[in-house]
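Ticket 4471: requesting a sanity check on a complex prediction with succinic acid. Repro inputs:
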Amino acid sequence: MSAVLQALPASRQHLAIKPFDAPLGAEVLGLDLSQPVSEQDFALLHRAHLDHHVLVFRDQHIAPREQVDFSRRFGRLQIHVLRQFQLPSDPEVLVISNIRENGQPIGLGDAGHFWHSDLSYKETPSLGSMLHAQELPEEGGDTLFANQHTAWEQLPDYLWRAVEHAQAEHSYLARYADLQKRNPWRPDLTQAQIDEVRPVVHPVVRTHPETGRKALFVSEHFTTRIVGLPESESRALLKELFEHSTRPEYIYRHRWQPGDMVFWDNRSLLHLAAGCPIDQRRKLYRTTIEGDVPF
Ligand code: SIN
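Returned structure tokens:
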């Protein structure tokens, strides 16, 4: 994709969208999120988000409340089931961090270590998520995004026919025990938490509710089975889909810089946290905007 700035009307030349030389993503130039965002600028950001799927706002110095307020302009916010990792002052913010204070984790330390789309295990998965960098490691800590529109468009014919009308189950609990074994700090879930994340069924190929584009909608983290297929067939088909959906040519790798705010579209993308050395501190604040029931 061209790195040339997209043309904007003269009245809005302070704000520019610069597409990355990558399968997705763009940088937003000339916007300070600590200042009110006008309706006109908001409309431009909304369009750019639909076109590029990831927007990167560099060097943003905003309080959690400002992140919450900006996120709310795109829709209702969702609260993560692990209430333990809410920011006490702003419960809509989920702390993503490997830091421990007084022996206790301050955030979800292994969030995103498998490819996923946020909250796909809910009836109404997330429209999009915003992540604002607070502390970054010197090494690693990147986030990878894979374009699921392209993954669908380039799916081999035999897979296309196998999944075009298929439904799949998504479950938050599927990998929980496994994650808990690797990360003993992960809390046991209460019955109320388990009830909040009962498995749901979604189409394997969803239609983006705003652009009408189709996208693959399965992930290694949350998708457990293809409905109606014998276990072994379902497992084999999902394995092929997972491999295909994260091919290198669909991926943009975000290398975090201090002050970065990244806003992505969970209806178009999968994402993955690449991880960093365990002795390096990483902390980001996430807000999650509710989307529609996938169709
Ligand atoms: C997430 O999956 O939301 C977290 C991604 C990251 O920490 O890079």
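Notes from triage: The helical segments are 39-52, 64-72, 148-153, 157-163, 176-182, 191-196, 231-245. Leaving this open until the requester confirms.
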